[in-house]
Structures are given as structure tokens and as C-alpha cells.
Amino acid sequence: MIPFVAIDDAKIAPFHPYGVCVAIAFFVWDWAVMKMAVRRGFDRADFRALTLWLGVLGWGFAWGVDALFYHPGQSLGSRFSIQGLSSTGAIVGATIGALVWSRLHVRKEDGRWRATRRAQPIALLPVSEVIVATWTAAFALGRVGCSLIHDHVGKAATPGTIGSLFAIGFPRSAEDGIHRAFGPIHVITGASDLRYDLGLLELLVLAPLAIGFAFTWKKEVAMGTYTIVASLVYGPIRFVLDFLRAEDGVTGEARQGGLTFAQYWSLAVIALGIVLLVRQRRGLLKGSAAAPPKPSAQPAD
User: Fold this and answer.
1) Nearest residue to 127 (alpha-carbon basis) of 289, 13, 264
2) pLDDT(294) > 60
3) Do 133 and 212 touch, CB atoms closer than 8 A?
4) What is the structure's pLDDT at 88?
5) What is the distance in angstroms between the CA of the first residue and the CA of the last residue of the chain?
6) 126, 98 Cβ separation under 8 angstroms
7) Is the pTM value of this prediction over 0.90?
């Protein structure tokens, strides 16, 4: 059993533990992705425009997917009042943003913004390699925030099983368990409600993946490697972990055809990883992730 750890918001006000983690994750990713993009030959201003596309559509889809596909028992109208975010929705939105950016060149000329169609769409795999290689670090930091506020409480675990070693003892009341306070950090052991914390379980997967990727940032890596590894590691694990999600109650999440939205997304990610792996093994993915891509196509007149 893993101890229950939480942050007392009142002792760090006006800050919030999740907000702090997300802010750190954003700045870490922004620094890492821009540095890697420039190192790999992308135009800085053009790639900065890409990050804006990723951010705007990512946040929009994160909110929209959460509202539409989760929260069982809620009416459609009330779902849109919930301040939830879906990480898989964010990735879907970011992917759509990258597709738009690869075909549409937005720039500022003579003090005015112009949007023109690119003469030739930019290949997305070199772009994906830069984003995925750095995204894991930000995602892991974000899951630290989820683990501290416990916003992804899953199904109950059976005491004495191997699975229970990865479950958290959640207190059912202020008197449940042994409480210890270290400043704003509260640690509770021996609480009686043994449940899986999906945010923490994802963190245990993402942290080593992020560290492994970070050690290769300056090395020559075969084209597609980051996308393939991320797809074939995170995709299957996310698919399995979602079977541990609660199906009812405050933390319950809806299913469609017996699976969550994230599980359908995971299947698509796994398929992508397999296709790219086959293409890489056949020598169809040319170049290195450390080699600059071809210059961006000029916008069409």
C-alpha cells in the first residue's frame, strides 16, 4: 500500500499544487521543445506558431472531450459546466493543430497578421519527434500535480494482492489512518479505503520514459524512434490502466461500448506505433531525428 500524500492548499495559498505543477510543466516543455526545434533546423518563429496551435486546440479539445465523453449520470448541459480536462483530448486537439499548421503559414508582415496556404505541407514525423521527445517530461510533471490532488481515483484494490502494492490507502474520515504533517505536506498511512490512483500510476510510467528520452536529446536517433517508443509504451499501458477507472460515483467515468474514450485513443496510438515500426525496419523512414529537416516550404502566393 502506498501512503496517501496531499498538499494543504491553505498553507501555500494563493497557489494550488496542481496549478504549480502544470505551470512548471509548461515552462519546462516550452524551453525544451523550442531548444530542440532550433537545434534540428526548424525556423524558430514558425515553430513558435506551431506551439500556439498546439496550445489553443489542445486545451479546447481537452475540455470538450472531458465534457462529452466522461462524467456518467450527468446531463449534456451540466457536463459543459464541469471544469475537467482530458489528457487524451488534449493530444487529439494538438494533433489537429499540427495538421493545420503543416498546411497553413501564419506570420506577421508590416504589422498585420497573414495566413497563407503553404506551397507544400510540412512533413509531420520530424515535428512529432521533437514534440514527443520533450512532451513526456511535461506530461510527467503534470501527473505529479494529479497525484497530489488525487483527481483520478480508480477502483478499489483487493488487500493482499500484487495490485494492492500500487494502490493508495485513502482516508474515509479525518480520523482514518495515521496522520503526519511536514509543513504543507500531509502523509497518511494505514487508511482503510484502498484504491488505485490513476494519476500516480501514469506518473510511474511517464517518469522513466521522460528521463530516458532526455538522455537522448543530443544523440543521433533514427527517425520515428521517439514516436514509436512513446506509442508502444504509453499506448498499451494507458489502455490497461483505464480498466482500473471507477465507473460510478463522483470520480466515475463513462464508457462507450465498454471502453473509455482514452482506450479507443490508445488503440489508435498503438496502431500508429506498429505502422511506424514496420516502416522504420523496412528503411522507409529516412534520416535521423537529430538531423535538420528540409527547410519549410514557402507559403503559396
Assistant:
1) 289
2) no
3) no
4) 87
5) 63
6) no
7) no
Residue reference for cell 536517433: 221
Q: Which amino acid is at 106?
A: V
Report the distance separating Cα 178 and Cα 263, nearest Å.
Answer: 36
**Distance between CA atoms of residues 270 and 228, nearest Å:** 9
Q: How far is CA 78 from the centre of its chain?
A: 25
Q: Which helix (H) or strand (E) holds 105?
A: strand 104-109
Q: Mean pLDDT, to the nearest integer, of 175-196?
A: 92
Measured between alpha carbons, how far is 109 from 173 in angstroms, rounded to an integer?
61
Assign residue 183 a region (left: φ > 0; alpha: ψ between -120 and 50; beta: otherwise): left
Each residue of 151-168: pLDDT tens digit?
Answer: 888 999 998 888 889 999
Q: Are strands 112-117 and 104-109 parallel, antiparallel or unpaired?
A: antiparallel
- For residue 236, what pLDDT is reported? 96
Q: 93 near 261, Cβ under 8 Å? A: no
Is the confidence at residue 75, as pLDDT, over 70? no
How far is residue 53 from each of residues 97, 130, 186, 224, measured CA to CA in Å? Answer: 5, 15, 39, 22
Rounded to whole angstroms, the Cα distance separating 35 from 128 reads 15
Query: At residue 111, does pLDDT exceed 50?
Result: yes
How much is the pLDDT for 291? Answer: 43
User: How many beta carbons lie within 10 A of that of residue 70, not counting itself?
Assistant: 21
Grid cell locating 106? 501564419
Whether the CB-CB separation of 213 and 136 falls below 8 Å is answered with yes
Reading across the β-sheet that carries 185-189, which strands appear in turn?
4-7, 185-189, 178-182
Q: Report residue 89 as a C-alpha cell.
A: 483530448
Residue 116 DSSP label: E
Please provide residue 154's backbone torsions phi and psi, each rounded to the nearest 5 degrees: -105, -155
Task: Classify residue 223 by its DSSP letter.
Answer: T
Place of cell 506530461: 139
- Which residues, at least 6 apart from 253, have a Cβ–Cβ distance to it below 8 Å? 70, 71, 72, 245, 246, 247, 260
